[in-house]
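Journal club prep, notes for RB
We'll compare a predicted complex against what the paper describes. Inputs for the D-glutamic acid case:
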Amino acid sequence: MNKQSPIGVFDSGYGGLTVLSEIRKQLPQYDYVYLGDNARAPYGNRSFDVVYEFTLEAVKLLFEQGCPLVILACNTASAKALRTIQQNDLPKIDSFKRVLGVIRPSAEEIESLTSSNHVGILGTNGTVQSGSYIIELQKFAPDIQIVQLACPMWVPLIENNSHNSIPGKMFVKDDVERLLAMDSAIDTIILACTHYPILQDYIQELVGPKIKVIAQGPIVAKKLETYLFVHPEMEKALSKNGTCRYLTTENTAIFNQKATQFLNQEIVSEHVLFT
Ligand code: DGL
């Protein structure tokens, strides 16, 4: 088959690369197109309407690239836009195409992760204010105690490569301490923003070995594999040449440099504009 029907992976910026790399490890046979809306990142402080509008544009662009399936590798977009896109837009655009998010996969796993039933969520303002994690986690574990903290500085720090600087590390430490002070029985912290796995080792060092720090990438990858197994019509529609293209709405030279750092491999991106 020559026609490319890749899996689309979308994030406001570089964060979704942490999910993409885990998906490609688990499912290397498929073709992928990654889209970073770097020109308009971060999304974390934007309103529902704006996040929905930007995410829908991104989904349409990935559909135009031939993707029958798009993963919103962005919690903010998953929290604020996914449901409306699934319920209102997809039936009008193409009833075969699918858009999946990153919140439900983590929620489905929560019972197997926590023993104390006390969970901390670190995310963007948008994700925390949406209450999506509370709603989704309690569907799968009704007795769970959840505390959430928005960390609005973290995405800009990561996007600007300042997260390893001394002030950058102080911001992160301060936020992690604030989360732990909210509930001393937390045994699991979900990194509910796809940028945050870049900080995972440092956060784990801060909280010590008794608390699990969970990145979503491996969970999303495993759930996607199951999804394709139970949806053979979608699995058959995907092309399988093991390729990956990278699209950015910002400067490609900057994207290449940062994505190369994040993924530890040479990345050459293409510039795209929303029409
Ligand atoms: N990676 C996005 C998320 O998971 C970051 C959001 C942002 O752009 O602020 O929420």
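Talking point for the session: The CA atoms of residues 32 and 244 lie 5 Å apart.
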